[in-house]
Amino acid sequence: MTSGHQTYGAGSGRQPLQTRALTREAGRARQLLAAGEWRPAAADSEAAARVLARLTAPLPTRQAATTRTLATDRDRRLQRLLRTTLHHLDAGAVSPPAAALLAAVARAFLPWHTAPNPPRAAAAPRYGTPVGTADGPAVPPTEAGEALLPDLIALFAALASASPPGTVPLTPPVEPWQVQYTGRFRRYGRPAFGVWTAETIGCPACEGKAGPWTVTCDWRLISLGCQCGAVTHKHGLALSEVWLLLPDL
């Protein structure tokens, strides 16, 4: 991650991890924390501590571990990291720089969205390009994902402890971004455990659903601009429902 490489695992024959955003946001976070320009608020520190717990979680101790159970345990740890990151990203409580960092982590660990345990129900979110092929099971690049953990542990440990009690929070500005996207956005709900609902977002003016969209985001609010000229932010989409569908920015 600190090398500036934008993909991991490209030589393994599997889908490489998308780390362009992670390299950028992790480097930026380190610089801001070291310079004292980012003193995280309580919500940022709490989210960082929860993600840190997933990053440092030990693998289960099994009396008769097999190669298969070990592989499943390794992937399950990374999947729980992704889901915890998405939870805090979409909760809307963290600051824009924390949201940008969480989104970048989620992008990098996206191959574990369905591995080893896919979300239940047909309407559960599907993000990115599936790992694997139609002829075989999806196999995420586990070693590449685990290679990111040491740097992330150090970063999130610093973020979680950067603001001791009594510290006045200081949040640096984050530049908004804009990108063009052609495709559909889906808003997901989870009214009960294992139960998902989904709704395709349409333009409030022309009811178009496939774009092209002009997506503008300041890490607090996402606006969708339709080709008909209408712009709306009243779509209810979570950050992940937009960010994880876009190219690796």
Description:
The chain is α+β, with helices and mostly antiparallel strands and about 250 residues long. Helix content is about 35%, strand content about 15%. The chain is built from seven helices and eight strands, in the order ββααααααββββββα. The strands form three sheets. A four-stranded antiparallel beta sheet has the order 3-6-7-8, with no helix packed on it. Strands 1-2 form a two-stranded antiparallel ribbon. A hairpin with an 8-residue loop joins strand 1 and strand 2. Helix 1 (about 20-35) packs antiparallel against helix 4, helix 1 packs parallel to helix 6 (about 150-160) and helix 2 runs antiparallel to helix 3. The longest helix is centred in the N-terminal third of the chain and has 24 residues, at about 65-90. It is globular.
Structural class determined from secondary elements: alpha+beta
Question: SSE order, as H and E?
Answer: EEHHHHHHEEEEEEH
Low-pLDDT regions: 1-6, 8-13
Percent of residues in helices comes to: 25-40%
Q: Calculate the mean pLDDT score and round it.
A: 89
Proportion of residues in β-strands: 5-15%
Q: How many individual β-strands?
A: 8
Distance between the termini: 15 Å
> Quick one: biggest sheet?
4 strands, antiparallel
Instruction: Determine the number of helices (DSSP H or I, runs of at least 4 residues).
Output: 7
Major sheet strand order: 3-6-7-8
Radius of gyration: 19 Å
Principal-axis shape equals globular
Summed up:
The model is unreliable at 1-6 and 8-13 (pLDDT under 50). By secondary structure, this protein is α+β, with helices and mostly antiparallel strands. The two termini are 15 Å apart.
